[in-house]
Design goal:
- 78% of the residues lie in helices and 0% in strands.
- It is built from six helices and no strands.
- The protein is elongated and about 60 Å long.
- The chain starts with a helix and ends with a helix.
Length: 136
């Protein structure tokens, strides 16, 4: 689980760097004023708004992944199935981010988002089974 969690951290940092460079580019090209970032007001270029929204997404549903991973590690209950679904979640979030930051098809993005959510539900289900029944 730890390696999958680290991969999510790398994805989050990658999107943060993309957002950082898009913001610098927008300020240099005078598409936005730096003062707009005080309260995040005014119009933003689409690519920057997409990256900002994707970055925010990486602090919403993934928190459930980080919590489940931390619990599994702390309780020493990681199973092969949990690790497989953890990597499935990371893969789904990577695909979700790639779609969001490139061609941004909402239906494709939704499928990737839902695949990640299914992985999270399975991981939590496995955690509950392991805790309550002592198996998995």
């Amino acid at each position: 689980m730890l390696y999958a969690m680290f991969a999510m951290v790398l994805l989050t940092c990658g999107v943060a760097f993309r957002l950082f460079f898009l913001r610098i580019k927008a300020v240099k090209s005078k598409q936005v004023r730096i003062s707009q970032f005080r309260l995040y007001t005014g119009e933003m270029p689409d690519d920057m708004a997409q990256a900002a929204r994707n970055y925010s997404n990486l602090f919403e549903t993934p928190i459930l992944f980080y919590i489940a991973g931390t619990i599994a590690i702390a309780m020493d209950v990681e199973s092969t199935a949990m690790v497989v679904f953890a990597w499935g979640f990371v893969g789904a979030r990577l695909i979700h981010s790639w779609i969001h930051l490139t061609y941004n098809n909402v239906i494709h993005r939704l499928w990737a988002f839902m695949a990640g959510n299914v992985c999270i539900l399975i991981i939590w289900g496995l955690l509950l089974l392991k805790h309550s029944l002592g198996w998995v």
